[in-house]
């Protein structure tokens, strides 16, 4: 007997009610860059030569990082779409950075 494949919806446990959803939808607000932690910002600052930082720097850094990455991702997606692909390659990111005036070495 052939097994049936289930789609995006799983059966409810009692068999009488509506089928339940298998995956949750992620809201756009939860995908913000609030996950950039304080130690991660400190590591970036240390690499840039900063010795000490005020506590107010972290929120400002998160905002600046959000703005910068938003632009880079937008340009990267434009390059990917122009090449009629759906998967972003590292070459797309390098071209987007070069187009915005920031050359990536390495």
From TrEMBL:
Subunit structure, interactors included: The nucleosome is a histone octamer containing two molecules each of H2A, H2B, H3 and H4 assembled in one H3-H4 heterotetramer and two H2A-H2B heterodimers. The octamer wraps approximately 147 bp of DNA.
SMART domains listed in its UniProt record: H4
A cellular component annotation (GO) from this entry: nucleosome
TATA box binding protein associated factor (TAF) histone-like fold domain span: 37-98
Swiss-Prot/TrEMBL keywords: Chromosome, DNA-binding, Nucleosome core, Nucleus
Keyword presence, Chaperone: no
Protein name: Histone H4
Major subcellular site: nucleus
Subcellular location: Chromosome; Nucleus
A Pfam family this chain is assigned to: TAF
Domain of life per record: Eukaryota
Annotated function: Core component of nucleosome. Nucleosomes wrap and compact DNA into chromatin, limiting DNA accessibility to the cellular machineries which require DNA as a template. Histones thereby play a central role in transcription regulation, DNA repair, DNA replication and chromosomal stability. DNA accessibility is regulated via a complex set of post-translational modifications of histones, also called histone code, and nucleosome remodeling.
GO molecular function: DNA binding; protein heterodimerization activity; structural constituent of chromatin
Residue ranges, annotated region (Disordered): 1-21
PANTHER family tied to this protein: HISTONE H4
Family: Belongs to the histone H4 family.
Source organism (scientific name): Mycena rosella
